[in-house]
Amino acid sequence: MIPCMRTHLKRLVLVAVLGLSASAARAGNPTNPILFVTQVPMPEEVNSRTISVSDQSCVSPFSNHLADTAHAGRGGSLHVRFSNGQVVDLLAAADWSAIPGGKPATNAVAVRNPSVSWAADKALFSMVIGAPSGPTDTTQFLWQLYEITLPTQAQLNASVPPVLTKVANQPASNNVFPTYALNGKLVFASDRPYNGQAHLLQREEYLGLPTVSGLWSLDPMSASSLQLLHHAPSGAFSPMVDSAGRLIFTNWDHQTRDPEAVTDYRDGITTAPYNETFKQTFNGSGNFVDETSGAAFTQVTAMSINAWEFFPEPRNFDRKTLLDEFGNTLNGFALNLFMPWMINLDGTDGEILNHVGRHEVANGVAKSFKDATLVDLSATVNPGYGGMTARTFYNNLLWTREDPRRPGTFYGSDAPDLGTHGAGQIVRLNNAGTNASGAPLNPDAITVTYITPGANNAAKPAFIPTVKGGMNVPASGAAALPVANAETLYRTPVPLADGNLVASHVGGVRQTDYNSGTVAQPVSFYAFRLKSLKPSGTTYVPDVTLTAGLTLTTSYYVGSTLVSYNGPAWELDPAEVAPRTPPVAATSRIDPIEAGVFASAGVDVPTFQSYLRSINAALTVGRNVTKRDLHDRQQPFNLKVTWSSTQTTATTGTLYNVAWIQFLQADLRRGYLLGGSTPAPGRRVVATPLHDTWAENVQTPGAPPGALRLGDDGSFAAILPAGKAMSWHLQDDDTKKTSQVKERFWVTFQKGEVRTCASCHGINTSDQTGTATSPVGRPTNPPQALTTLLQFWKTNHPSGAVQHTTASVSAPKNAGTAVLTVSRTGGSTGPVTVAYSTLDGTAYAGTDYAATSGTLSWADGETASKAITVPLLNNPVIGAAKTLSVRLSNPQYGSLAAITTATLTVTEPR
């Protein structure tokens, strides 16, 4: 029973929006139907260095996938709102006959994340069915994917029910944020472990809470189609397919050292020179020796200091490590950023949207070394180089959605990571699409526009103070914003086909949310309602409230407590019911420069990619790591390859040597006891030197673990694990193998993928030696390291050599034909072709035989001998035996062995 509509149990449930007059049916009233969900308010979002105290819920920006009643209160439903204001509870009206167990009780359901099909005739959503029957019921519940048909308004009013089905072949995991892909496939986030091993449930890198492992693809018609598209160590959310056929999503980028490990190891040192402020915690942090289920576990308190982690730099608060180990030459590093990312629908080419740098659209980045040559970039300060200026920026970008009227324009919420349930200022990302050929537009042209203002027409909302971090957390001492300065925040903004904007709106915000009631009767400061927005000057303001308000009356157990709620529902996750034209899927391709290296090395690209797929691996290639994007000066940008004269310098100042590129796997090796005697379920990633595919690479004695020698031209080529997040950094060849330049994000490769990073960070307009008006483009050298790797691979996987099986053959001239045999020996990797042709000796073409030429071909793995047939013309003139030659030439992907020419003797018949 849907609690807000208790009197409508046996008929279609309708809610009329009262007072929607003709004057209200204006620009702000959506033309098309709007799907949305209702949710019991979930006020708690707690940030604590004690993992068991931290808490998020199904409406939080992260760790939002848990389906127990503590994290997903029961009683909501899926609704559709039509342009005349009529609201229909689709689950109350639906045909549940295809769902095992039939229609459940209302207080046993929670719903989220509706996504409309291309034809707008059905929708996906995530739903959890079931709730504890009492205080001792420990049943485990899961968010699962469902599909519902979308009858028209007239059909619903004529009692045509929506039909509900469960998505087939989905994993038995928490599956959320579904979206329609192409060709019958779906994409969604899931907490299924990246490799399917149950003990590797993932914890995020910030608070150590459970998280989804990334984005997955599924064709419901085939269980074997399940594929991890993007492995996200801290989580990936809100995927959607844009007009360019790319999968756009929000990635939580948090590649930093584990703060819990540091605070578990020791108390902060409050005296000079450290002046640390943190207190020791007791999460029981430790490392597993590897990812296996029975791996040995050692607490950090039993290790030498910092032995548990070495990448990237120490955190800002860890002053002891920064001073004692690095001599105060480094700035501490912390990254906590929600950014829009893009990948192809097969998981290839994953990177931040259009490869824009965080320093180009987000708030700012501190320099890595305390080197005056390097630059602290702040969005509010003109850096004075590269054409960059003070600029409009966002702190985070959540819930990214493309404007259906303006391809390449995206909307989202700039919201804090917790405290406001992902609600913040609406921002627009401009010029983030592709050109006519499908290539991403230059990210230097991407700009950020504030769509909604802060209080009192400020450009941005004020910082929302945390007066109390949670119902069981002491008051912070901060004061709430004055009533006159209360902010208006928006969650999940959706640009519509008619030009409107719709979002979940909350006004009067003076502080972050928390449960000001009790566990049994929670109370939130926030009241999310669906509203459209209209232009007001240069920004948008709330316009039409899309419902008259929906009430939830529900109760359910959270542990031993019976939670009751009777009040306004939160109206969340709007989605427009409007048909869209499916785009052509974006695809990856091998850059012509690298393709040329394959050809020169005699390696067949499809064969090489097939081999990569067979070992679950990918190839990544760089041409010259000394070249950097013009804007990217927070890390060293005057770089020289230690082994050679290759260097690129932009200014006078420190020249940094780079010798090695060390690749790092996001191995799930961090665990936490959380008060127990054995580690609690779930693991956090730890940057671990490459080992899964180490044997596939060209190794150098004395190299750091997992590191490859840079080519003299600054290039690299590496075979890396597929389907697992990877990162890397450039190291000096000094005693400490000093880390000079770091990749700041985790990147996933797909098996069989061949990806080129011409330089890192990739060049937008110019490298660091040029200017915005006189640019110097990306390097175009054929990478020497790729040639070396392919030669190494060919040695281990030879294609073989071809030759005549015998140097001479004879046949009587009246035999009709003569047959010569060519063999392939010494290897069978890849296809091989060889040309052949006849050549006159004492036998003449046209008189004694028919001139013959052609090509012999062997498929990958084929070793059977091939035949060359030479027609004989039975010359009527009787005489001595005559000879001709059959020559092999121009082998492709193979080589010629010793017998390249065979003699054919044409004899008189006996």
What is this structure, in a nutshell?
With 910 residues, the chain is mainly beta.
CATH architecture of the largest domain: 6 Propeller
- What's the shape? globular
Query: What level of helicity do the residues show?
Result: under 10%
Helix-strand category: mainly beta
Q: How many domain modules? A: 4
Explain what the structure shows.
The chain is mainly beta and 910 residues long. The chain has 4 domains: 3-255 and 336-576, Neuraminidase, CATH 2.120.10.30; 259-334, no CATH class; 589-796, no CATH class; 801-907, CalX-beta domain (Immunoglobulin-like, Sandwich). The protein is built from 8 helices and 52 strands. Strands 11, 16, 17, 37, 38, 39, 41 and 42 form an 8-stranded mixed β-sheet that branches. The chain has a 5-stranded antiparallel β-sheet with strand order 1-4-3-2-32. It is globular, with a radius of gyration of 32 Å.
Explain the layout of strands and helices.
Blueprint: E1 14-15, E2 34-39, E3 78-81, E4 87-89, H1 90-93, E5 109-116, E6 122-129, E7 144-149, H2 153-157, E8 164-166, E9 175-180, E10 186-190, E11 202-203, E12 214-219, E13 222-231, E14 236-241, E15 247-253, H3 259-265, E16 285-288, E17 297-299, H4 319-324, E18 337-343, E19 351-352, H5 358-361, E20 364-365, E21 377-378, E22 398-402, E23 410-414, E24 425-430, E25 447-450, E26 487-495, E27 501-509, E28 529-536, E29 539-545, E30 551-558, E31 561-568, E32 570-576, H6 592-601, H7 605-614, E33 617-622, E34 639-641, E35 647-648, E36 656-658, E37 660-672, E38 683-689, E39 707-709, E40 716-721, E41 726-731, E42 739-742, E43 754-757, H8 784-796, E44 801-804, E45 808-812, E46 817-825, E47 832-840, E48 853-858, E49 866-871, E50 882-892, E51 895-896, E52 901-907
Parallel strand pairs: 11-38, 33-43, 34-36, 44-51, 45-52
Antiparallel strand pairs: 1-4, 2-3, 2-32, 3-4, 5-6, 6-7, 7-8, 9-10, 10-12, 12-13, 14-15, 15-18, 16-17, 16-37, 18-19, 20-21, 22-23, 23-24, 24-25, 26-27, 27-28, 28-29, 30-31, 33-40, 34-35, 37-38, 37-39, 37-41, 41-42, 44-46, 46-49, 47-48, 47-50, 50-52
Helix pairs in contact: 6-8
